[in-house]
Design brief:
With about 250 residues, the chain is α/β, with parallel strands linked by helices. Helix content is about 35%, strand content about 25%. The chain is globular and about 50 Å long. The two termini are about 30 Å apart. The structure holds adenosine-5'-diphosphate and magnesium ion. GO terms for molecular function: ABC-type amino acid transporter activity; ATP binding; ATP hydrolysis activity.
């Protein structure tokens, strides 16, 4: 579903990604873990073109988003194609990013109506289905300010799903939540995984990574250091930095 190869990215003089490669298969759940500042968010943001890469290749479902030729010249697909490719991916952020002036329903129906040009009635029907799925049917007409953090994040997940993505990208979806609210969000994500959604999840939740992810990748200082089946990784991390990180987290 995603094939990223040799991605490099710098912000000014800071080299943030130093040749990161990652493959994501259909139905696979990959957890990306690693210390703060290691480039996890930047990598995710490069995949759906919220950031441009400096070099490397990204293919999504066989379509080339960006590639780099032998001379080092990077080229992105034409704008329309880039947009179509990025629509295959839904993204959920740490800070929800809901529109505060719109109700839950309005937050969710907007993109399908504008981008997919479906009717309001169809968008509402889809939204009601998704709200039932994330357990928030009763909050349909509330504004985000009336919701808990966990509820906001579940709305954000429903909003991403409303665009019918093939892949979901999560960037530390529970990191901004009070500890007692992380469970409900992780449960929703686990249900998605059970339905065989293809997911790339940056997380500090080691329990989730161990139990739900098929593969764990460990990043440090802009490099992808280790990529292993989750059970194996947690039982026996190979790299010293991964060991130290796990020791610190568990
Ligand atoms: P992580 O998500 O693993 O914590 P990030 O991808 O957010 O790491 O950040 C990696 C590095 O890139 C950090 O040193 C961070 O300060 C830097 N960085 C991230 N975004 C920007 C930006 N927009 N401008 C400049 N530096 C950035
Ligand atoms: Mg981050």
């Amino acid at each position: 579903m995603i094939d990223a190869r040799d991605i490099t990215k710098a912000f000014g003089a800071t080299q943030v990604l130093r040749g990161v490669s990652l493959e994501l298969a259909k139905g696979e759940v990959v957890a990306v873990i690693g210390p703060s500042g290691s480039g996890k968010s930047t990598f995710l943001r490069c995949l759906n073109h919220l950031e441009t890469i400096d070099s490397g290749t990204i293919e999504v479902e066989g379509k080339t988003l960006v590639t780099t030729d032998a001379s080092g010249k990077r080229s992105y697909a034409p704008e329309g194609e880039v947009r179509a490719i990025c629509r295959k991916m839904g993204m959920v952020f740490q800070h929800f990013n809901l529109f505060p002036h719109l109700t839950v329903l309005e937050n969710i129906i907007e993109a399908p109506m504008i981008v997919q040009k479906i009717s309001r009635a169809e968008a509402i029907a889809r939204t009601e289905r998704l709200l039932a799925k994330v357990g928030l049917s009763a909050k349909r007409d509330n504004y985000p300010s009336r919701l808990s953090g966990g509820q906001k994040q579940r709305v954000a997940i429903a909003r991403a799903l409303a665009m019918e993505p093939d892949i979901m990208l999560f960037d530390e979806p529970t990191s901004a939540l009070d500890p007692e609210l992380t469970g409900e969000v992780l449960r929703t994500m686990r249900e998605l995984a059970d339905e065989r959604m293809t997911m790339l999840v940056v997380t500090h939740e080691m329990g989730f990574a161990r139990e739900v992810a098929n593969t764990v990748v460990f990043m440090d200082q802009g490099e992808l250091i280790e990529s292993r089946p989750a059970q194996e990784f947690f039982a026996d991390p190979r790299h010293e930095r991964a060991k130290a990180f796990l020791h610190h987290m568990l």
